[in-house]
């Protein structure tokens, strides 16, 4: 069984985000980039499934400019067997990504497609659902636990919902998107980092996949949230009560 995992290159989670002066987006020049944390969890889950003997190959996929190769090298160092880079300089919105993933699924024939539930740069939380719809595959989103049954060819997914946990049984092939509590991603060891440099990364373009990229979204403006006012130190309970009564409604 093959497992395909989509990994995205995003601004590192520890970096303070800065909006471009022209307000067209977030500044990414001279900024540390890394693999999206939810994608790390998705890749870790695929690797654990393979290590348990339920899968034969894990394929990492990333889309975007040439720098995405660095993200794929990280995935290979973690343990992925192969990598595919869909090279594109265009801005890729969720529907375009879903169409590209659909084309790759048809060519690679994986039985399981695992994605992070969302990327921390745009927080769209749409790609997994869209690609499941395009493929007409069952989906288990926000997964906090995944159990595969090779004989029955099913995946049992515990997913986090507003009211608690929901358990789904999906017939394979299926799409799963991962939540934070699914696992703790491993660190790539130095020997594996060195080995990853010799692993194959296949390059394709959307045109070669017969995918036409259309921008179905338009970013009008990106702005920073309003800055919070500085806090004050109070000296007594009476002063606290006074401020709560007279100033708590002031924004």
Main CATH class:
Alpha Beta
Low-confidence parts: none
Instruction: Please provide the count of β strands.
Output: 11
Strand order of the largest sheet: 9-8-7-10-6-1-4-5-11
The proportion of residues in beta strands is 25-35%
Tell me what the CATH architecture is. Answer: 3-Layer(aba) Sandwich
| Span of the ends, CA to CA | 56 Å
Number of helices: 6
What is the share of helical residues?
25-40%
Averaged pLDDT:
90
How many domain modules? 1
Written as H for each helix and E for each strand, in order along the chain, the element string is EEEHEHEHEHEEEEHEH
Inertia-based shape: globular
Write structural notes for this entry:
By secondary structure, the protein is α/β, with parallel strands linked by helices. It has a single domain, classed as HUPs (Rossmann fold), CATH 3.40.50.620. Helix content is 27%, strand content 26%. It has 6 helices and 11 strands. It has helices spanning 37-51, 68-78, 94-108, 127-135, 190-196, 237-246, and strands at 2-6, 9-11, 33-35, 57-64, 82-87, 112-116, 139-149, 154-161, 164-171, 174-178, 201-204. The strands form 2 sheets. Strands 9-8-7-10-6-1-4-5-11 form a 9-stranded mixed β-sheet, sandwiched between helices. β7 and β8 (154-161) form a beta hairpin.
């Amino acid at each position: 069984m093959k497992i395909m995992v989509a990994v995205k290159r995003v601004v590192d989670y520890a970096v303070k985000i800065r909006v471009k002066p022209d307000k067209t987006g977030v500044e990414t020049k001279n900024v540390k980039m890394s693999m999206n944390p939810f994608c790390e969890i998705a890749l870790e889950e695929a690797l654990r499934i393979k290590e348990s003997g339920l899968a034969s190959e894990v394929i990492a996929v990333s889309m975007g400019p040439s720098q995405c190769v660095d993200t794929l090298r990280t995935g290979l160092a973690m343990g992925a067997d192969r990598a595919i880079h869909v090279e594109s300089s265009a801005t890729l919105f969720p529907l375009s990504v879903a169409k590209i993933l659909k084309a790759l699924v048809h060519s690679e024939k994986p039985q399981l497609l695992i994605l992070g539930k969302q990327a921390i740069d745009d927080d769209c939380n749409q790609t997994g659902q869209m690609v499941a719809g395009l493929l007409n595959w069952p989906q288990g989103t926000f997964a906090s636990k995944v159990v595969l049954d090779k004989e029955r060819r099913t995946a049992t997914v515990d997913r986090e919902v507003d009211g608690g946990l929901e358990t789904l049984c999906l017939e394979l092939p299926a799409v799963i998107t991962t939540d934070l509590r699914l696992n703790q991603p491993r660190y790539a060891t130095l020997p594996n980092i060195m080995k990853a440099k010799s692993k194959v990364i296949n390059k394709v373009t959307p045109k070669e996949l017969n995918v036409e990229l259309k921008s179905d979204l338009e970013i009008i403006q990106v702005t920073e949230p309003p800055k919070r006012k500085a806090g004050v130190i109070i000296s007594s309970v009476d002063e606290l009560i006074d401020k709560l009564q007279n100033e708590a409604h002031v924004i």
